[in-house]
Specification:
This protein is an alpha+beta fold. It folds into four domains: 35-99 and 266-288, no CATH class; 109-153 and 542-727, no CATH class; 154-264; 294-515, Trefoil (Acidic Fibroblast Growth Factor, subunit A), CATH 2.80.10.50. The protein is 44% helix and 11% strand. The protein has 21 helices and 15 strands. Strands 2, 3, 6, 7, 10, 11 and 12 form a seven-stranded antiparallel beta sheet that branches. A six-stranded antiparallel beta sheet has the order 9-8-5-4-1-13, with no helix packed on it. A two-stranded antiparallel sheet has the order 14-15. A hairpin with a 6-residue loop joins β14 and β15 (571-574). α4 (101-125) runs parallel beside α7 (156-175) and α10 (207-226) packs antiparallel against α11 (233-265).
Length: 728
C-alpha cells in the first residue's frame, strides 16, 4: 500500500531564464528608490484624495472613470496602514510620516514591472523568435515614459498591465484552439482574457478600446471557424457560448462587482454625494440620512414637504418662496404680476417647505388615517411660512419670456383670479395607481388651467437679478411633452403636518423631521445612478500648462514636469525615449507601406513571401498596429483636456511593432549573408542608441541625481520641451 514511498518524489520544472531575468530587471527598474521623492508628484494630488476617502469610507464620484483603479491604489494604502489623514492640496508638498509612500506606489510599480515579461510573451505567442521577443521586452524596460508613469500613485501602468495581460491571454487561448479546445488550459486563458478586459475597463474607460479590439478579433476568428467543415453545429454552438460567457457575461458581472465593492466600502456621506439624488443620499450614513431617517414614505394630503429638483446640476436646489414680490416692471420694460416670488434655492431653508393640500378641503393637517396622494391627483401646494398658494398664469417669466411666471398668489382684488391647481404625474411610476412616495417618486407638476409644467429653468441659465437674491428662476414650461430632469421633482424631507394654526405650524416647520418609515435603494438602482453620473458629469475643461493635442504625441513635441525639488533643482519629467518613439513611428510607417505593397502584389497573383509569413505579418499587425490605432485615434474625437500620458497605452503597442518589422525585414528582405550581417550590426548600433537615450534622461526619469544647470539645458532636445531651469 505504501510502495510509492520507496521511490523519491521528484518534481521537474522548465524555467524560462529569459522571462525570469526580464522580470527581475523590470522590478529593479520600477522599484528602485520608489519612496523618492517623498513628496506629492503631479496627479498624486488628484488620486491621493480618493485614497484618503476610501480610508475614511466617505462616498465620492470621480468622472474620470470606474472605481477599480482607485480601489487598487487604496489597497496599497490599506496594506501600508494609511489612515487617510493627509491634505492633498499641492504638488510638491512633503508627505507626513503617517503616509506610507512605498506602499501607495507599490502596485503601480509592480504593474509597470510586469509589463516587461508580458511584452516578451506576447511576441512569443505571435510566433516570433525569442530574440525578437527579447528585443520587445527590453524596449519596454528602457522606455523612460513608462518607467516614470509606473513609479508613482497613478493608474496608467495598471491599465497597460491589464491591457497586455488581456492580449497575451487571448493569444494563448487562440493558440490552444486547434489542439486543446475545451481543455483546462484553454478555459483558463479564455476566462482570464475576459477578466483582464473587465479589469482594464474598470481602471479607466480607455481599456474599452483594447477590449473592443479583442472582441472584433475573436469575432473574426469565430467567423473563420464557421467555415470549418470539420466542426459540427453543436461544437460551433459550444464555442460561441463559451466565448459569449467568457468575453461578455463574466466581464459585465465583474464590472458590476467593482461598483458593489466600491459602494459597500463608501457608506458614509461626504461632499460628493450632493450631486446624487435624494434617495441615493438618504442611503448613506450621515448627511441627508440623518434628516430623512424615519420619515413617512407615502405623501398624503396635509403632508409638509421639501421639493428637490432631480437634475441636480450644476447645483442642487429646492422649490422656494419668500415674502418678496416680483418687481412691477423688469429692467427691459416688461411688466410682471407683482406676485410673491417663487425660485429654486440651492441651500436648505425653512422657506423650502410646502404643504400638500386637498383643493376640496380647508385643513392643512394629515387626517387619521392619512389619505395618500396618487398619480393623477389634483393638489394645491401651500407655502409653509407665508401660507400662499403656488400659482402660475399667462404672464411671461422674468428671464424666460416664452415661459410662464410662477408665483405664490396674492389677492390684489384685480381681474387676475388664482390658478393654483396642479396635477401630480409620477414619472417613474409602475402603474397609474402608484402612490406619491418620499424620495423614491420622481414627479412632474402639471398646471391644470394652462398645462404648463413646473420647471427649474435657472439650472440651465442665468440666476435672477438682485431683486431675486441671485436665486434660480422657476417657470411654467408651456406645451412640454418631452421629459427633462429640470421639470422633475422629488420629495426630500417630509413630515405629517399636525398643526392647523399658523404659529404652531411655523414652529413645526422649524423642527427636525423624524417619523416612521425609511427605505434604502437596491444595489442596481445605486449602480445605475452612479454609472450615469460618471458618464454625464463633466468638470469644466480648462487649459492646463502641460495639456497637449493628440498630434503632439507622435513626435513627442510635449512633456510634463511632474516634480521639482525646492532647492537642488532635481526634477522628474514625463518624457519618452526619443530613439524608441522615432523607431516606433518608422516601424508603423514601414509596416503600412509593406502591407499595401504586399496586398497590391497579391492582387496580381504575385506572392513575395510564403503564406505562413503573410498570416504571421497580418496577425501581428492586427494586434500591435491595431492596438496602437484603437488606443490613439479616438482622442481626435474627444473634447477633453489631453495629456501626454493618454498616449502611453498606444505607444506600448507601437513599440511591440518594432521587433515585428525588424524580424520581417531580416528574414525576408535581407537574403544574402552579407546583408544579414550588416542588418544585425545596424540593429546592435540602434539598440545602443536606445540605451544611450535611456541613460541620458534617467536623471529626469528617476529624479536623481540632481543635474547642474548646463546638463539640464543640454536635455532640452526640442524647443517645445519645458525643462525647468531654476533662476538664482
Amino acid at each position: 500500500m505504501l510502495g510509492f514511498l520507496k521511490e523519491p518524489v521528484v518534481v521537474t520544472a522548465k524555467i524560462n531564464v529569459n522571462l525570469v531575468a526580464l522580470t527581475v530587471m523590470g522590478l529593479i527598474s520600477r522599484l528602485w528608490g520608489l519612496c523618492y521623492p517623498r513628496a506629492v508628484v503631479f496627479d498624486e494630488v488628484y488620486y491621493g484624495q480618493f485614497v484618503s476617502l476610501y480610508m475614511k469610507r466617505i462616498f465620492f464620484v470621480d468622472d474620470s472613470g470606474p472605481p477599480f483603479g482607485h480601489m487598487l491604489l487604496a489597497l496599497g494604502g490599506y496594506l501600508g496602514g494609511f489612515d487617510g489623514n493627509f491634505l492633498w492640496n499641492r504638488i510638491g508638498a512633503e508627505y507626513s510620516v503617517n503616509v506610507p509612500v512605498w506602499s501607495l506606489r507599490l502596485l503601480p510599480a509592480l504593474a509597470g514591472a510586469l509589463c516587461v515579461p508580458l511584452a516578451y510573451q506576447i511576441l512569443v505567442e505571435l510566433h516570433f523568435s525569442h530574440c525578437a521577443a527579447l528585443g520587445a521586452a527590453l524596449l519596454i524596460l528602457l522606455e523612460n515614459s513608462l518607467i516614470t508613469q509606473s513609479r508613482f500613485m497613478l493608474l496608467e501602468s495598471i491599465l497597460i498591465f491589464f491591457i497586455l495581460l488581456a492580449v497575451l491571454s487571448y493569444l494563448k487561448f487562440y493558440n490552444l484552439q486547434k489542439h486543446s479546445a475545451f481543455s483546462g488550459s484553454w478555459w483558463f486563458w479564455l476566462l482570464l482574457t475576459g477578466v483582464a478586459c473587465s479589469c482594464a475597463v474598470g481602471v479607466k474607460y480607455m481599456g474599452l478600446f483594447t477590449y473592443m479590439l479583442l472582441l472584433v478579433t475573436a469575432g473574426l476568428h469565430f467567423w473563420h471557424m464557421i467555415g470549418d467543415q470539420n466542426l459540427s453545429n453543436v461544437s460551433l454552438l459550444c464555442h460561441f457560448l463559451a466565448r459569449g460567457l467568457a468575453l461578455i457575461i463574466i466581464p459585465m458581472g465583474l464590472y458590476l462587482s467593482f461598483f458593489y465593492v466600491h459602494l459597500a466600502l463608501l457608506y458614509r456621506s461626504g461632499p460628493h454625494d450632493q450631486i446624487m439624488t435624494s434617495a441615493f443620499q438618504a442611503s448613506l450614513e450621515g448627511g441627508l440620512a440623518r434628516i430623512t431617517q424615519g420619515q413617512p414614505l407615502e405623501v398624503a394630503y396635509g403632508s409638509q414637504i421639501t421639493l428637490r429638483n432631480v437634475l441636480g446640476k450644476p447645483m442642487q436646489c429646492w422649490l422656494h418662496s419668500h415674502p418678496n414680490t416680483y418687481p412691477i416692471r423688469y429692467e427691459n420694460g416688461r411688466g410682471s404680476s407683482h406676485q410673491q416670488q417663487v425660485t429654486c434655492y440651492p441651500f436648505k431653508d425653512v422657506n423650502n417647505w410646502w404643504i400638500v393640500k386637498d383643493p376640496g378641503m380647508q385643513q392643512l393637517v394629515v387626517s387619521n388615517p392619512p389619505r395618500p396622494v396618487r398619480h393623477g391627483h389634483i393638489v394645491q401646494l401651500v407655502h409653509g411660512i407665508t401660507t400662499r398658494y403656488l400659482n402660475t398664469h399667462d404672464v411671461a417669466a422674468p428671464l424666460s419670456p416664452h415661459s410662464q411666471e410662477v408665483s405664490c398668489y396674492i389677492d390684489y382684488n384685480i381681474s387676475m383670479p388664482a390658478q393654483n391647481l396642479w396635477r401630480v404625474e409620477i414619472v417613474n411610476r409602475e402603474s397609474d395607481m402608484d402612490v406619491w412616495k418620499t424620495i423614491l417618486s420622481e414627479v412632474r407638476f402639471v398646471h391644470v388651467n394652462t398645462s404648463a409644467v413646473l420647471k427649474a429653468s435657472g439650472l440651465s441659465g442665468a440666476s435672477l437679478p438682485e431683486w431675486g437674491y441671485r436665486q434660480l428662476e422657476v417657470v411654467g414650461e408651456k406645451l412640454s411633452k418631452g421629459y427633462h430632469q429640470s421639470m422633475v421633482w422629488n420629495v426630500e424631507e417630509h413630515r405629517y403636518g399636525k398643526s392647523q394654526e399658523q404659529k404652531e405650524r411655523e414652529v413645526e416647520l422649524h423642527s427636525p423631521t423624524q417619523v416612521d418609515i425609511s427605505k434604502n435603494l437596491s444595489f442596481m438602482a445605486k449602480f445605475t445612478e452612479l454609472q450615469w453620473k460618471i458618464l454625464t458629469l463633466k468638470n469644466e475643461d480648462t487649459e492646463h500648462k502641460y495639456s497637449s493635442s493628440a498630434l503632439d504625441w507622435i513626435t513627442m513635441d510635449t512633456n510634463i514636469a511632474y516634480w521639482l525639488h525646492p532647492t537642488s533643482g532635481a526634477q522628474i519629467h514625463l518624457l519618452g525615449n526619443v530613439a524608441t518613439w522615432v523607431s516606433a513611428n518608422a516601424a508603423a510607417l514601414v509596416y503600412l507601406c509593406l502591407s499595401l505593397w504586399y496586398l497590391l502584389r497579391r492582387r496580381r497573383k504575385i506572392y513575395d513571401i510564403p503564406e505562413d509569413a503573410w498570416k504571421l505579418w497580418m496577425s501581428a499587425g492586427g494586434i500591435c498596429g491595431g492596438g496602437w490605432a484603437v488606443n490613439y485615434l479616438p482622442f481626435f474625437l474627444m473634447e477633453k483636456t489631453l495629456f501626454l500620458y493618454h498616449y502611453l497605452p498606444a505607444v506600448t503597442f507601437q513599440i511591440l511593432l518594432i521587433p515585428v518589422v525588424l524580424q520581417h525585414l531580416g528574414d525576408h528582405l535581407c537574403r544574402s549573408v552579407l546583408l544579414k550581417s550588416m542588418f544585425s550590426a545596424l540593429i546592435a548600433a540602434w539598440f545602443s542608441s536606445v540605451y544611450f537615450v535611456y541613460c541620458t534622461f534617467s536623471p529626469v526619469t528617476y529624479g536623481q541625481p540632481a543635474l547642474p544647470l548646463p546638463e539640464l539645458k543640454a536635455l532640452r532636445w526640442k524647443d517645445t520641451w519645458n525643462i525647468l531651469i531654476r533662476k538664482h
